[in-house]
Amino acid sequence: MFFPLSDDDRTLDGPAWVTWTLIGINLLVFAYQAANPEFTQGYSMVPKEITTGVDLVDSEFIEFDGQVVEIPQHSGPPIIFLTLFTSMFMHGGLMHIAGNMLYLWIFGDNVEHRFGHLWFLIFYLISGLVASAAQIALNPLGIIPNLGASGAIFGVLGAYLVLFPRNQVKVIVMYYVVSLPAMVVIGVWAGIQFVFTWDSIYADQQSGGVAYAAHAGGLLAGVLMGLLARSLFREEPDSALHRIDDRDPKSRIMW
């Protein structure tokens, strides 16, 4: 077992309004999904709908492990491409949303404080779009609905890896709670995603319905945008982190 619990937020000042709002929206949408299953079927991202521009409204059938499986479909938004955004705030089950929101809660606030509220929101949405594009590229005519904030959150992890590689993260390893550098914690998860993404390509399927290509795409997007931010914004934005750097010449500015 390798499970994160928290990171070092002692130097952050001010609330992470966008992170908290994103968590709230995800929870509200999940509650709406529970009462309206047709909403989940219609507003998830289906690669074939995006590549053809046609909303699938009737059930589709695929062969999986020698059996014919029905994939329910339902009418989506008037502009079907909007599912690229709506799917970012939907989840397939309680464990799915619990895991995603935990990661966003732990790692989102640090990245938001570095980017600023508006730029963090833009960054988050772009990461989600790139993640969906990666999944579509893997299977352009796929009819299995894709949903979840995982792609955007892996973008957050990628940026965190660039901006806070040495930040300590408390994780459960087997039966122990230990502190490890973020580069180790996120690096392990990144390695897992890329291994399963390669397996998905080799097997020409979605590996049990988990969109690993989206995870890998979101992570790469986050790393690249984190590196871009460090090159464009040479000066550390005013924050508790910056003021600590001013007081302690031995501290390392990571921006």
Word description of this protein:
The chain is mainly α. It has a single domain, classed as Rhomboid-like (Rhomboid-like fold). It is built from ten helices and five strands. The protein has helices spanning 17-35, 37-43, 47-52, 83-86, 94-115, 117-138, 150-163, 182-203, 212-232, 240-247, and strands spanning 2-7, 60-64, 67-71, 168-173, 176-181. The protein has a three-stranded antiparallel sheet. Strands 2-3 form a two-stranded antiparallel sheet. α1 packs across α2 (37-43), α6 (117-138) runs antiparallel to α9 and α7 (150-163) packs parallel to α9 (212-232). The longest helix has 22 residues, at 94-115. Residues 197-210 and 250-255 have low confidence and may be disordered.
In short:
The chain has 255 residues and is mainly α. The protein has helices at residues 17-35, 37-43, 47-52, 83-86, 94-115, 117-138, 150-163, 182-203, 212-232, 240-247; strands at 2-7, 60-64, 67-71, 168-173, 176-181. β2 and β3 (67-71) form a beta hairpin.
Largest sheet: 3 strands, antiparallel
Q: Rg to the nearest angstrom?
A: 19 Å
* Quaternary organisation of the protein chains: single chain
Q: Which structural class matches the secondary elements?
A: mainly alpha
Number of domains: 1
Query: What gross morphology would you assign?
Result: globular
The appropriate CATH architecture is Up-down Bundle
N/C terminus separation: 32 Å
